Amino acid sequence: MVGLPTQKASSALDLPQQQKEQGSAVVAPMSNSKPKKKICCACPDTKKLRDECIVQHGEAACSKWIEAHLQCLRAEGFKV
C-alpha cells in the first residue's frame, strides 16, 4: 500500500478546533434563535400584572396589560 495518500482520522481532540473554525457559520441570527427560557418563566413582571388585572377586573378590562405581556414575550423571542 505504498504510495496511497493517507487521511488523518478525526479524533475527539480535533473536534474543538473544528468547532472554532466553523463557529461563525454555525451561530444563527438572534431573530431565528430559540428563546432561552420557557414561556411560563419569561416576563414574570408583566405576567403578574396581567394575571392580577384579569382576576380583579376581567379580561376585557385588561387589554393594556395583556398587550404589554405579549410584547415582552416577543422581545424574549417567542412567537405569540
Automatic annotation (TrEMBL):
Q: Which UniProt keywords apply?
A: Chaperone, Copper, Disulfide bond, Metal-binding, Mitochondrion
Family, according to the entry, reads as follows:
Belongs to the COX17 family.
Binding residues annotated for Cu cation, in chain numbering: 40-41
In its UniProt entry, the species of origin is given as Ilex paraguariensis
Chain segments carrying region Disordered? 1-30
- For the keyword Protein transport, the answer is no
Grouped into one coarse class, the protein's main location is mitochondrion
Q: Which residues form a coiled coil?
A: none
Signal peptide span per the entry? none
The protein's matches in PROSITE patterns, at most eight in alphabetical order, are given as:
CHCH
Kindly list the places in or outside the cell where this protein is found, as annotated in its UniProt entry: Mitochondrion intermembrane space
The cross-references to InterPro entries, in alphabetical order and at most eight, read:
Cys_alpha_HP_mot_SF, Cyt_c_oxidase_Cu-chaperone
Specify one Pfam family. COX17
As one GO molecular function, the record gives: metal ion binding
Record's GO cellular component terms: mitochondrial intermembrane space
Q: What is this protein called?
A: Cytochrome c oxidase copper chaperone
